[in-house]
Structure formats: C-alpha cells, structure tokens
Amino acid sequence: MQEVFKKYMDYLQVERNASPYTVRNYTDALMKFFDYLKGRNITSLKDVNKQTLRDYLSHLIENGYAKSSIARRLSAIRSFYRYLMREEMIAVSPAATTVSPRLDKRLPSFLTVEEVKRLIESPDLSKPQGRRDRALLEILYASGLRISELVNLDVEQVNLDNNEIRVWGKGSKERLVLIGKPAHQALTDYLERGRPELLAKKKSEALFLNRYGGRLPARRVQKILDKYARNIDKKVHPHMLRHTFATHLLDGGADLKVVQELLGHADLSSTQIYTHVTQSRARKIYLSAHPLAKKAVKRDE
C-alpha cells in the first residue's frame, strides 16, 4: 500500500498540481484509513469493498468525528480510488457509490460594513508594519482573495494603473480580481513607504513581507487579524473577509455569476450559499423593522 500511496502523492503534486494544503489533508486522511485497514488485517487495496467503507464510516461516527471531517476523509478516499482505476490497478471503485453523511447547512459568517471599517482603520500607519497591515486588510476585503492567494502574491502581479491583481487560484487557474480606491491608496502607500523599510537591503518578489523582509506566512496573517479584531470584539479569520466581500457585493445588487468569477469558484453552487445569507439577513431586517411583521410575530406567539 505504501508504494502505491507514494505514487499517488507524486501524481497529486506533479500532474494535478494540488496545493500543499490538499496534499497534507489527503495524506492525513489516507494514512488514517490505512491504519484502520491494518487493524482489520486487510493488507491489499483489492480486498476493500463497499461494506469495508461503510464499516469505516460507522467507526468514525461512533468515535465522534464531525460530519464535515468524515466527508473530507471520504473525498480523499474517492480521489485515491479514482487514481487506482486510472492506473488500472483496480476495475471498480468501492468508494464511487458510498454516500457521504448529510452535512448540516451552516451559513458563512460575515462582518457588517461598520465592523469592516473599524477593522481596516485599526493599524498604526506611522509604522511600516501598520502600512502593510492596512494594505493587507483592504486587499482581503476589496478582492475576496483566499489566504493562500494573498500570501503568495508577488509585486509584479499588481497593476495599480488598472486597479487589478492577477491571481493564481486553486488548480493554478488564473483570474483577475479588482480593487477599489481605498485599497488602491493603501497599497500604494505600502509599496512606497512601508515595503521598502521592511525589505531593507534584501531581495524579494513577495508583495507582503514580514519584519525580516521575507514573505509573510499565512499563520502570521491570522495573528494580524486577531490583533485588530479586538476593536470589534469578534473572532475574525481570513475566510470571513472573503465571505464578507461576497455578501456585501450581493447586498449591493451584484450579479451572482460576476461574484462567482471574482471569487474563482468553479461551480456556481459554491457561490449560491451567499444568496441564502442575504435572504436570511433580509428576513431578520424585515421582521424587526416592519410594523405589521412585528404584530404578526406577536400573534403567532
């Protein structure tokens, strides 16, 4: 199994160009699946059948794993077995018709316009790190970038003349994202007065730098958000600003397909979750603001 697993990992990285995050997650999921098979004295992948997978899912449920975690593990196993079929190591995948647990629908969290304003205005612009943080926050909200896309940006990908940033997203798919005037101003200020100080005499193509002049890592971005989120008394993660970007665009009347393109979603269904957010928000506003709606709620109670 280990030799086949190694070849599959090479396939993911070289041919599929999977992100380090995907490779790490698939590695973890498959190694734990192999441990389960070993515990059942199953030493050949050809001996795994649909019942084996059903038993494995039951094992995960009994041990208290979340539905989302179980679904991710099954997704990794499906991908692995598709590879085995592609290499003609097996004829039929036992994972193809194995059903994932139904996930509970959770609407993405987002910030209000006022909360975004307070968050973005928090950095101290008298310091190079503050100028960097201001530009970073403006870019996250203005463009809806994923955290991996943000930290991997190089200076040459930014076109301030057209207010565009060229991004390579999932699967190395290229797209253009747009930024508005506030993000343009913050980024210009950082490039002219913040980044040169952080860079010092070092050389780097990275757009966002740490205090040593190297590329800013994703974990540091989370610490930056933790620092400024104290001003709004709310836990903020990078993906929340992506959710906020999409929600505010739809609230403002943006077309769903345009939002899909800006987010880099391959499937429109991934973007449609934000329509549920705006509908849910509209309902709450209606019930709290409309006088007859208030009376109707009281009568129902």
Uncertain stretches:
296-301
Distance between the termini: 61 Å
Strand arrangement within the widest β-sheet reads 1-2-3
Main β-sheet, in a few words?
Answer: 3 strands, antiparallel
CATH-assigned homologous superfamily of the largest domain: Intergrase catalytic core
Say what the CATH topology of the largest domain is. Answer: hpI Integrase, Chain A
Order of helices and strands: HHHHHHHEEEHHHHHH
Strand portion: under 5%
The CATH class of the largest domain is identified as Mainly Alpha
Number of strands: 3
Radius of gyration: 23 Å
Could you give a short description of this structure?
With 301 residues, the protein is mainly alpha-helical.
Report on this model:
With 301 residues, the chain is mostly helical. It has two domains: 2-86, DNA polymerase, domain 1 (Orthogonal Bundle); 113-286, Orthogonal Bundle (hpI Integrase, Chain A), CATH 1.10.443.10. The protein contains 13 helices and three strands, in the order αααααααβββαααααα. It has a three-stranded antiparallel sheet. β1 and β2 (164-168) form a beta hairpin. α1 packs antiparallel against α2 (20-39). The longest helix has 22 residues, at 268-289. The chain is globular and about 65 Å long.
